[in-house]
Amino acid sequence: MAATKGQSISVSLASATCALLGGVTPAAVQAQEEPGWDFNTSLLYYGEDADRVQDLSISVLATRTFMDDRALTMGLTVDALTGATPNGGQYQAVPQTFTSPSGNAVFTVPAGTLALDDSFRDTRVAVSANWTQPFSRLYTFDAGLSASKEYDYMHLGANAKISRDFNQRNTTVSAGFAYAADSLNPVGGTPTPLTPMADVGDLSNRIGDQDKDVVDFVVGVTQVISRNLVVQANYSFSDSSGYLNDPYKIVSLVDGITGDVVPRTPAPGLQGPSHEYVFESRPDQRTKHSLYGQAKYYMNGKVLDASYRYMTDDWDIDSHTVDLRFRWPVGERSYFEPHLRYYTQTEANFYQVGLVDSVPLPMYASSDYRLGNFDAITAGLKYGWTTRNDNDMSVRLELYQQRGSIPADRLIGSQVGLFEYPDLDAVILQFSYRFGR
Question: Beta-carbon neighbour count of residue 23 at 10 Å?
Fold first, then answer.
């Protein structure tokens, strides 16, 4: 993929970017000569430790290029998810029994273990379509639609972006917009926030389907610095409104002195939770601001890709993400690409280990570990090669590790030494095959 001295800056940078994506010349570069189909397929496995969430995903991305750099891209992804997922219940020195999300059964977790709901099963189908259309010498317009369906969730989305080249096409300024309308139909019905988990068969605190809307804006600039270096900077704004709770997450009610979850006795003849739990409550509005920077450096066939993202929102979550990839060619037809990603975030202002039962309930509370204070590292290696018929294949293996912390002053009584952030380890394995052109 090394560029010759006679190539233009734009072609050199296209080659560098192409190398990062797996060794395929972008469709736009070939569109004038060889309009046709390009297919990018992948099979991905994601597995968490301790029999938690497992995901097997297959995806196909098909791009049809036309004359004048027009392109139609269509995508299909199917996910099959199984396993156990934390429901937010607190660690206890005694076994705990919970009512299942459907409200028709109970399940029990052993003493001193993470409260996992092993009834998690789902299949997700997602489709997308995008059209790219230059409408003058320097302007390009993109528009797309997306949809996905799960057993209890439906997403519909639309997006559009306009780009303008300057400075002999060495500078590109772009602005984009996306809108998503999502509908939630949880198993057993949507629970009213902060109402108690009830006995089996009692669905009196369930309400109808819920909706949320997400609006995103992004503006950015991409700049060619030299034949071997291109940089990008973006600012994005996101506003979510509507039902933002996770309907399957709960918060434990605890004794203000001992820190133990308050025990509960089911009604006579019924099964139900062994302790007091309430369904979580989150604000119905969330605004996020993000700054993103990326640099790609081409070095005689090698490519360094480095990026950083800062995000802050009105839930008081601040996050930092650093992502590094380095593509190293091996001969003329293959390469290695090590990958390292570091992520850290602060906790939401309503994140709670548990709620003291003698204190009036707050307006918002969640013990979802994804809203807590944690660090995460992803490290892995990708190997890619070009086949004899000039198709592209790659295998990627990555390990994910997430570790969190809860300040000691947030713990009371027995929580000290017993309750801890639910750490997570996962493995990611992906096989990709690209053909066509």
Answer: 22
